[in-house]
């Protein structure tokens, strides 16, 4: 089986990329597909926080039950909660994309599918001449765009789609993340169909509200008990890999 996967990006920071990536991963694993994960760069995370589910990489590792080292999953981690370029400068630890690509290639030799979660949005700078979009292109993975329901989502998502297309990136689809109770509202529920109609990009899943602080108390068992119906697109996708 040839290695496949997705690069998960967002319309903004804090839109629920890690929760969505985890739910995608559980749906893929439900089809007995071997899954590797990456969070190539994480900022705003201390060394003591990294192993816990309060960090993105810690949550992914715990919830999806992977045994790979933190260094392979997330080669660059910074305490400063800013864009990777600035964090790397402030902490005097520049990012070498080749290190990330080598870690990715190591994982591809072990797993059938890789999910790589970006930091922030597609135009977030990693180096002054290298953006998150460039990393997605170097990994040759189609995008999953994570958006949230709020005023301005159509514009933010459209900008992400346009930026991705202009750089020759393939977009698999959009996943909406419900970050508040009772979402989508009566008005917000029209947002996905408008984006599909105008930009011809499918909305392939809506991640339900998962609590006010889902990272704080989720273990692998908690995630296994979550309803995967909303993410059936990915279990169906994984099922096709074995045919």
How does this structure look, described?
Helix content is 37%, strand content 19%. The protein is α/β, with parallel strands linked by helices. The protein has a six-stranded parallel sheet with strand order 2-5-1-8-9-10, with helices on both faces. Helix 8 links the parallel strand 9 (171-177) and strand 10 (203-207). 44% of the residues are buried. The mean pLDDT is 90.
Residue runs with pLDDT of under 50 for 5 or more positions: none
Assess the beta-strand content as a share of residues.
15-25%
By CATH reckoning, the class would read Alpha Beta
Gross morphology is globular
* N-to-C order of helices and strands: EHEEHHEHHEEEHEHEHEHH
The tally of domains stands at 1
Key traits:
243 residues, alpha/beta, Rossmann fold, 10 helices, globular
In short:
This protein has 243 residues and is an alpha/beta fold. It is built from ten helices and ten strands.
What's the helix and strand layout?
Elements: E1 4-10, H1 17-29, E2 35-38, E3 41-42, H2 56-64, H3 70-73, E4 76-77, H4 84-90, H5 97-108, E5 113-121, E6 125-127, E7 130-131, H6 132-139, E8 143-148, H7 153-166, E9 171-177, H8 191-199, E10 203-207, H9 220-224, H10 232-241
Parallel strand pairs: 1-5, 1-8, 2-5, 3-4, 8-9, 9-10
Antiparallel strand pairs: 6-7
Helix pairs in contact: 1-2, 1-10, 7-8
């Amino acid at each position: 089986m040839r290695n496949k996967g997705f690069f998960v990006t967002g319309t903004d920071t804090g839109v629920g990329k890690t929760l969505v990536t985890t739910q995608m991963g559980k749906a893929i694993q439900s089809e007995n597909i071997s899954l590797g994960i990456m969070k190539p760069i994480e900022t705003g995370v201390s060394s003591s926080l990294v192993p816990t589910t309060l960090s993105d990489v810690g949550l992914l590792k715990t919830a999806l039950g992977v045994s790979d080292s933190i260094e392979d999953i997330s080669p660059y981690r910074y305490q400063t909660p800013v864009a990777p370029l600035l964090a790397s400068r402030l902490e005097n630890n520049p990012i070498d994309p080749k290190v990330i690509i080598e870690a990715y290639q190591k994982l591809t030799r072990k797993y059938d599918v890789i999910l790589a979660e970006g930091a922030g949005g597609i135009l977030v700078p990693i180096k002054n001449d290298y953006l998150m979009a460039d990393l997605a292109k170097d990994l040759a993975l189609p995008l999953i765009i994570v958006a949230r329901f709020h005023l301005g989502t159509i514009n933010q998502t459209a900008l992400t789609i346009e930026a991705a297309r202009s750089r020759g990136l393939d977009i698999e689809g959009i996943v909406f993340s419900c970050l508040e109770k009772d979402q989508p509202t009566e008005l917000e529920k029209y947002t996905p169909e408008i984006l599909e109609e105008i930009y011809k990009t499918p909305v392939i899943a809506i991640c339900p509200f998962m609590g006010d602080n889902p990272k704080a108390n989720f273990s692998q068992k908690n995630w296994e008990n979550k309803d995967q119906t909303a993410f059936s697109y990915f279990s169906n996708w994984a099922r096709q890999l074995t045919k």
